[in-house]
Write a structure and sequence with these properties.
This protein is an alpha+beta fold. It folds into two domains: about 5-140, Rossmann fold (3-Layer(aba) Sandwich); about 150-300, Jelly Rolls. It is built from seven helices and 16 strands. The protein has helices spanning about 15-25, 35-45, 65-70, 90-100, 110-140, 160-165, 200, and strands at about 5-10, 30-35, 50-55, 80-85, 105, 150-155, 180-185, 195, 205-215, 220-230, 235, 240-245, 255-260, 265-275, 280-290, 300. Helix 3 (about 65-70) links the parallel strand 3 (about 50-55) and strand 4. The protein is elongated and about 90 Å long. Mean pLDDT is about 90; it is low at about 305-310.
Length: about 300
């Protein structure tokens, strides 16, 4: 049974072990036994179980010393560990729990209760791991978003609407022209750190805003860009136009996709964002072509020199 939980019981009480195996077996648990600590270490190193149930009356070593060594082992320190004693007193329980035992049971309990407690511990650990996986997945979706930008604009022309301004090259996209760059403001909500919130920059409707940053990768590679904008966008990488969409829309992450080549070292990104009405913003996430995270990705917007920077 490939997904069966494995329980290592370290105890020389054959009757107790047999009763416990009988109680846990119907639920699909694999119960392995060791009578001595040396054998237990071999089993732990060979194939780590999901839980260790350890008697406090070991014949060859102090159970609490074994517990201490287990908790100091970097590969095994997070293993579920339960102590079981014939008639443990309060001090025994306190000592074991303070040293890191996940539970301390008495053999005087009915074996079915001990099995139920083991089941509850394993079930709780499954839920914790599932929640941790969900949290990691939620965090990973934001890895690779550009979070450092400089902004220039807004730029307008009398009588021109945003879809017309889309085709007009303003200073930031003109070779040799100067533009006033400043750090982009933080988003209104900290949870939106992955997007450039330009609502406080545009100062009205029908204009364009420019964003720029620098992206560092360790090696030359093809990458995928997941782009979201409110409203339209032109995107240049190292001076080459690689994506354009003269849209009127709200921002959604990944609503546009593009591919480009990044050189080893620093790469220049320039965005032109059109503003129709209401909100305005942009987000760009950089991933490998297969969607995986690019290790060592760095961003640097640079510091404006005075009021102007080319």
């Amino acid at each position: 049974m490939p997904d069966a939980k494995r329980i290592l019981v370290l105890d020389d009480d054959a009757a107790f072990v047999d009763a416990l195996r009988a109680a846990l077996g119907p639920d699909g648990y694999m119960v392995e036994t060791s009578r001595h600590v040396g054998d237990a270490w071999s089993r732990l190193r060979g194939c780590t179980p999901d839980l260790v149930l350890c008697s406090t009356a070991l014949p060859d070593v102090d159970a609490y010393e074994f517990q201490r060594e287990l908790r100091q082992d970097p590969d095994l320190c997070n293993l579920l560990f339960v102590l079981v004693g014939a008639t443990p007193n309060g001090e025994d329980r306190i000592r074991g729990l303070r040293m890191g035992a996940d539970d301390f049971l008495a053999k005087s309990y009915e074996v079915r209760e001990i099995a139920a407690r083991i089941h509850a511990l394993l079930d709780r650990m499954d839920r914790i791991r599932a929640e941790a996986r969900k949290a990691l997945d939620a965090m990973e979706q934001y890895v690779g978003y550009v979070t450092t930008w400089l902004v220039a604009g807004p730029y307008r022309q009398r009588g021109k609407e945003c879809h017309q301004l889309f085709e007009i090259p303003f200073a930031p996209e003109q070779a040799g022209a100067s533009a006033a760059w400043k750090p982009a403001p933080p988003p209104a909500k900290a949870s939106l750190f992955w997007q450039a919130d330009l609502a406080s920059v545009v100062g009205g409707d029908h204009c364009v805003i420019y964003l720029k940053t620098r992206v560092h990768v360790a090696a030359k590679q093809q990458v995928r860009l997941d782009i979201g904008t409110d409203d339209g966008i032109k995107l240049w990488v190292n001076g080459k136009l690689i994506h354009a969409n003269n849209a009127i829309r709200g921002l959604r992450p990944g609503q546009d996709k593009a591919r480009c080549a990044l050189e080893a070292g620093w790469n220049d990104f320039l965005l032109k964002i059109t503003q129709h009405t209401m909100g305005c913003g942009a987000c760009v996430r950089i991933r490998s072509l297969d969607g995986s995270v690019i290790q060592g990705l760095r961003f640097e917007a640079g510091t404006p020199r005075g009021a102007e920077q080319k």
